[in-house]
Amino acid sequence: MKELKGKAVSDAIKEDIKKKLPAVETMLGRKPKLVIVRCGERPEDLAYERNAIRRIRETGMEAESCVFPEDISDNVFLRAFGELNSDKRVDGILLMRPLPKQLNEGFIISCIDSEKDLDGVSPVNAAGLFLGIDGFAPCTAQAVMELLSFYKIGLEGKNVVVIGRSNVVGKPLSMMLLRENATVTICHSRTKDLEKITKKADILITAIGRPRFITSDHIKRSAVVIDVGINTDKDGKLCGDVDYEDCKLKASAITPVPGGVGAVTTAVLAKHLLLAANRDLL
Length: 282
Description:
The protein is built from ten helices and eleven strands.
């Protein structure tokens, strides 16, 4: 069994960024800049924000937070967000979601400049992904593809089962896998006879948010297992959707949690920032 660690993938992405950054800085006359937009103080947002800012700065680029109170009105937020969206000194925007209920999240997402939309949430980028047009994909979905590519796991002609149909992972990732000529099956909470479907997978990718839900009974021998889930078990321990200890004896390759896909996601964010700063050079 091969453990597919994310650090090696992340390090390779960061090294590539550092090689390309000087040319982009020369063209811009400054460092590429990311702004993370956050409302309120949700612990999970704060943790991701700190990690993302640290990773961006490690590559030599700039990152900062733009924080609003959780009870901000829709009009005030839209005005401030509009100014940020049109600021030529800002190359990338990451909007922490979900937004507070009083804000019109759907409309706000539709307003994001698609060329600054590093997490691929805008309608333009979402449509481009489904139409096969260049644009930004959600960072977590792209991280899975980066990991598969780094470890030279071929996709053409493979049966790939994706468990989860979210707009962040399941749907966009399925489109990206289809581009690589994989045969993709999407499963979800209403799927019947799940084990019968997953056992046919050459590659099983799970993003369902259920601690250690996937066991060795769900996979065929020598399958590749990619765990996108990040959960907390009853003991407060971080774990994935996959029962790692159970499945590692049967899988040919498997990602750990933590230390797998999650370790690649913020590196992808940095890669997208550099791309947004000057697509022509990359």
